[in-house]
Structure formats: structure tokens, C-alpha cells
Amino acid sequence: MTSLSAPVQAVLELFQGPLSDVRFADVDAAGLANLAAEVEGAASAVTQQEAQLSELRQTLAERQEALLLLAQRAVAYARVYAEHDEALTEKLASITLPRAGKPRRASTAKAPSAEASAPLDGEVAESAGATPPADMSETVVDEPASAVAGSRKTKRRLGPPRDTAQSRPS
Questions:
Q1: Torsions phi, psi for 141 (to 5 deg)
Q2: From its phi and psi, is residue 65 left (phi > 0), alpha (psi between -120 and 50) or beta?
Q3: Can you say how many angstroms the Cα of residue 127 is from the centroid of all Cα atoms in its chain?
Q4: 156 backbone dihedrals φ, ψ, rounded to 5°
Q5: Among 6, 63, 93, 158, which one is least packed by beta carbons within 10 Å?
Q6: If we measure between CA atoms, which residue out of 159, 77, 62 comes closest to residue 118?
Q7: What is the pLDDT of residues 15-56, one digit of tens each?
Q8: pLDDT for position 163
Q9: How far is Cα 67 from Cα 86, in angstroms, rounded to an integer?
């Protein structure tokens, strides 16, 4: 594929054919051919740079997605931590993170090993098979959309409710 327009190609063909021996002031077959080769070289460089830019944009998007997922996890953990701190709870409530996009299958960026071993939101106590601490027994944790099949937001309780006397008949 060439980056030269059809009319320019037609002029080049004329100066390579019937006008190959003709020279006008600063225009001749060799000068046109050299400049055409430079144009092709520049076009090739642009194509390579665009491919590299595309790869860099993909890397940026993957890193932004990873940061968003980690920020969502951080907010979820912070909500549990701030359960009894109204000021911190208000600050956390004012943060609205966008939903994460669909996870990519062929990811070239690897997560750090500590992050890879961290449990997903809401799985802190359940994944280890441990009983949650008493102060977390009624905590409701919002799971990020990426951790749940589909796009619905789900909630999960960590442990039994605190006041079990109301839920059981006497």
C-alpha cells in the first residue's frame, strides 16, 4: 500500500516513462523519486508510531482499570473500618467511583503477588473460614460489579445479625 495519492503516482509514472530524460529547473525524475521515497519512509514511521501509541493506550487502559478495581476494594475495606466513625463514613459516602468495565482475558500486566492473594470485597472473613469479629457482624459490603456475574449490585451479610432475640420466637 502506498501513501502517495493517485495523481502524484501518475506524475511519478510520467517522469519514470516518457519524461524520464526531461529536466525542468528543479524538477526531474530523480528528484521526484527521492522525495517520493522520503514520503513513503515517513508514512512507514507514522504507521509504526501509531501501532506503538495504540499499545501504549491499551496499557494505560489496563492500568487505569486495575487502579479502579483496587480503589473500589480500598473503599469497601475502608467502609468496614469506618463503621463506627461517622466523619470517616461521610467522607467515604461522598466518593463515587465508576463501575469497572468487563475484565479483559488477555492481560499482559501482572498483579503484584500480595494483591493477587488478597480476597475480594466481602470475602474477608468467609474466605479464610473464620468467624468475623463482633463489630463486623452486621456490616454490609457492596461488591464491585466485576466481582459479581452480571451487572446487578449485590449485598452480602458478614455473619449473623447482632440482635438475634428479635428474629427468634421466645
A1: -115, 130
A2: alpha
A3: 27
A4: -135, 140
A5: 6
A6: 77
A7: 999 999 999 999 999 999 999 999 999 999 999 999 999 999
A8: 55
A9: 26
Number of H helices, E strands in the chain: 5, 2
46-55 contact pairs (CB < 8 A, 24+):
none
CB 125 within 8 A of CB 136: yes
CA-nearest of 153, 155, 157, 55 to 100 is 153
Q: Which three cell numbers stand for residue 76?
A: 469497601
Residue 130 has pLDDT above 60, yes or no: no
Distance CA 13, CA 29 (A): 9
User: 24 forms bridges with which residues in the sheet?
Assistant: 27
DSSP 8-state symbol, 130: P
Q: How far is the C-alpha of 5 from the C-alpha of 40, rounded, in Å?
A: 11
Backbone angles phi, psi at 167, to 5 degrees: -85, -15
Confidence (pTM): 0.47
d(CA 159, CA 139): 8
Interatomic CA distance for residues 111 and 60, integer angstroms: 15
- Cell numbers 521526484: residue: 32
Q: How many CA atoms lie within 13 A of 132 on its CB side?
A: 21
